[in-house]
């Protein structure tokens, strides 16, 4: 009898670009990928924060460097990716939220959110994929979306729209790039304690709404996303593409 082999979760020998990596989910996922063996480039606008994280990772004996990157500045971002790639793994956690009732949304807020969450994510994903295709390399491209990519939420019409859009282009890109052995997926978390979500938790009625919707009875922590990132980046998920992995504590089970 020949027992099947467990697929490897190791990322040894692979390069990973993590956008939005100066804090929160992006930083946590960057740490997870580095600890799984990847050479990780932490990218964001706040280079001081990146360099602090890189120093700590190197202190653990891991391979990491920093890249100052504004995902919403498309031409500059594309130039940097073209010069520094190819990356075997993309983990994009760069995102923005400006929550208001739908009828009070300003065009300025709409543009700011969609420029980063949708347009920036689209062109970052394509920039990384282009370098992989040019070099004939497989890859795993992951965008952090949200449970709000699959449901609606109060005061979140623009945010929900952008995250739905990312999950839409994920499916289309997965179809196009499957022949190149490039996988494209999303991780869709519930509310997680970060700098971005603290204003929500400061409002008692919204905090109660969140806690009531999460069936496991607790708000997420960044550590809850680290295993999902390693799984989707590694060969353990080699037949997974064009989908979204919910890490939502049961929010969308209703």
Assembly of the depicted chains: single chain
Percent of sequence in beta strands: 5-15%
CATH-derived topology: Rossmann fold
The averaged pLDDT comes out at 96
CATH class: Alpha Beta
> Helical region count?
8
Q: What is the CATH architecture descriptor?
A: 3-Layer(aba) Sandwich
Contiguous runs where pLDDT drops below 50 for at least 5 residues: none
Helix content: 40-55%
Structural class: alpha/beta
Beta-strand segment tally: 7
Going by CATH, what is the homologous superfamily? NAD(P)-binding Rossmann-like Domain
Labels describing this entry:
254 residues; alpha/beta; Rossmann fold; seven-stranded parallel sheet; 8 helices; globular
What do you see in this structure?
The chain is an alpha/beta fold and 254 residues long. The chain has one domain: Rossmann fold. 43% of the residues lie in helices and 15% in strands. The chain is built from eight helices and seven strands; from the N terminus they run E-H-E-H-E-H-E-H-E-H-E-H-H-H-E. A seven-stranded parallel sheet has the order 3-2-1-4-5-6-7, with helices on both faces. Strand 4, helix 4 (107-134) and strand 5 form a beta-alpha-beta unit. Helix 1 (24-35) crosses helix 8 (223-233), helix 3 (74-84) runs parallel beside helix 4 and helix 4 (107-134) packs parallel to helix 5. It is globular and about 50 Å long. The model has no long low-confidence stretch (mean pLDDT 96).
Summarize the topology.
Layout: E1 15-19, H1 24-35, E2 39-44, H2 47-59, E3 64-68, H3 74-84, E4 89-92, H4 107-134, E5 139-144, H5 157-177, E6 182-189, H6 198-201, H7 204-213, H8 223-233, E7 244-247
Parallel strand pairs: 1-2, 1-4, 2-3, 4-5, 5-6, 6-7
